[in-house]
């Protein structure tokens, strides 16, 4: 093992990290060849497993630049479990992949502690993962992070394009800022076109850039899943890369369009600041960022009041942001309310 360590791979450090994550996650089965999850199917008539995989993108470069790694794992889990939730499924378990050039146990513990926290917020279980030490692949303290979530639903209760109908109300759930999308543009505006520091504070923001940019992606499972299980949600769009146009289109049948009343919800100050500093068009904002909506729920009009009330009781900031109309799968942003 001394020769391998001289080549840049410390096996013993890897063993120590596995033990640390066992303690953090309270899962003593971690470290086996495969992750184990006991599956009880008694509550499901026709169970379907729903899976999702994702990464964090170049938001990782902000965490590396700031040397703050404790929340980036929450982002990772959120990107996966929110997608699973949007299909109408309950997240069951999660696995992560961490690729590093040199294994720094304290940094890795911070990263994976975020994963553990995210899994806890998603009411799921961390059943395994992989930490790969690859000298020369990742340099200058860089690393990569990816994950994989599996959920379950009854086939008849999956959310599909057959559920929404004309007149449905669109409820927008507030995001926690930028979440995990658009960071290549963010970095270009702030650190390439301009010379901002992570310790700077933009005009509209009440926190330093490092804290604003690293706000973790919100996980909506705890508040939204009960409504899915009640059958009071017609469809869900998780607003990620491509913003409202790309993601809301994915839940529309061919005969419906979504009309949003811009100004009916709060757009985060960081996005307005980026628009001003980067001289961005509204179209740039619309197709890059979530504009303050982390999820959009289509709800039948008769259920809208009760769904909104339950979401607010669960701690969500909810706005009536639009409606579904007859159309051809267009996402229309009406700005006359601005």
UniProtKB/TrEMBL annotation:
Pfam families: AIRS, AIRS_C. GO terms for cellular component: cytosol. It comes from the Bacteria. Residues 48-153 form the PurM-like N-terminal domain. Its EC number is 6.3.3.1. SUPFAM superfamilies: PurM C-terminal domain-like (SSF56042), PurM N-terminal domain-like (SSF55326). Pathway: Purine metabolism; IMP biosynthesis via de novo pathway; 5-amino-1-(5-phospho-D-ribosyl)imidazole from N(2)-formyl-N(1)-(5-phospho-D-ribosyl)glycinamide: step 2/2. It is an enzyme of class 6 (ligase). Keywords: ATP-binding, Cytoplasm, Ligase, Nucleotide-binding, Purine biosynthesis. The keyword Nucleotide-binding applies. Residues 165-333 form the PurM-like C-terminal domain. It catalyses: 2-formamido-N(1)-(5-O-phospho-beta-D-ribosyl)acetamidine + ATP = 5-amino-1-(5-phospho-beta-D-ribosyl)imidazole + ADP + phosphate + H(+). GO terms for molecular function: ATP binding; phosphoribosylamine-glycine ligase activity; phosphoribosylformylglycinamidine cyclo-ligase activity. GO terms for biological process: 'de novo' IMP biosynthetic process; adenine biosynthetic process. The keyword 4Fe-4S does not apply. It is found in: Cytoplasm. HAMAP family: AIRS. Belongs to the AIR synthase family. PANTHER family: TRIFUNCTIONAL PURINE BIOSYNTHETIC PROTEIN ADENOSINE-3, TRIFUNCTIONAL PURINE BIOSYNTHETIC PROTEIN ADENOSINE-3-RELATED. This is Phosphoribosylformylglycinamidine cyclo-ligase. It comes from Lentilactobacillus parakefiri. The gene is purM.
């Amino acid at each position: 093992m001394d020769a391998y360590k001289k080549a840049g791979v410390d096996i013993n450090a890897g063993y120590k990290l596995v033990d640390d994550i066992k303690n953090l996650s309270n899962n003593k089965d971690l470290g086996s060849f495969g992750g184990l999850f006991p599956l009880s199917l008694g509550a499901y008539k026709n169970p379907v497993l729903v899976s999702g995989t994702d990464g964090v993108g170049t938001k990782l470069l902000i965490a590396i630049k700031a040397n703050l790694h404790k929340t980036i794992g929450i982002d990772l889990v959120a990107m996966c479990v929110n997608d699973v939730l949007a299909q109408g499924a309950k997240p069951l378990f999660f696995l992560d992949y961490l690729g590093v050039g040199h294994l720094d146990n304290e940094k890795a513990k911070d990263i994976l502690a975020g994963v553990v926290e995210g899994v806890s917020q998603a009411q799921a279980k961390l059943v395994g993962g992989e930490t790969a030490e690859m000298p020369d692949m990742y340099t200058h303290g860089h690393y990569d992070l990816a994950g994989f979530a599996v959920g379950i639903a009854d086939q008849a209760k999956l959310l599909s394009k057959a559920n929404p109908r004309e007149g449905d109300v669109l409820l927008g759930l507030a995001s926690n800022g930028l979440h995990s999308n658009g960071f290549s543009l963010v970095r270009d505006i702030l650190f390439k076109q301009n010379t901002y520091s992570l310790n700077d504070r933009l005009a509209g923001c009440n926190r330093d850039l490092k804290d604003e940019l690293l706000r973790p992606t919100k996980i909506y499972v705890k508040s939204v899943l009960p409504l899915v299980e009640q059958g009071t949600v017609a469809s869900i769009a998780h607003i990620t890369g491509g913003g409202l146009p790309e993601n809301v289109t994915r839940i529309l049948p061919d005969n419906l369009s979504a009309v949003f009343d811009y100004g009916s919800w709060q757009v985060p100050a960081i996005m307005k600041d980026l628009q001003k500093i980067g001289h961005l068009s509204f179209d740039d904002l619309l197709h890059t960022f979530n504009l303050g909506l982390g999820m959009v729920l289509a709800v039948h009009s008769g259920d809208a009041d009760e769904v909104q009330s339950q979401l607010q009781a669960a701690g969500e900031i909810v706005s009536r942001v639009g409606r579904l109309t007859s159309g051809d799968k267009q996402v229309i942003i009406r700005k006359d309310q601005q």
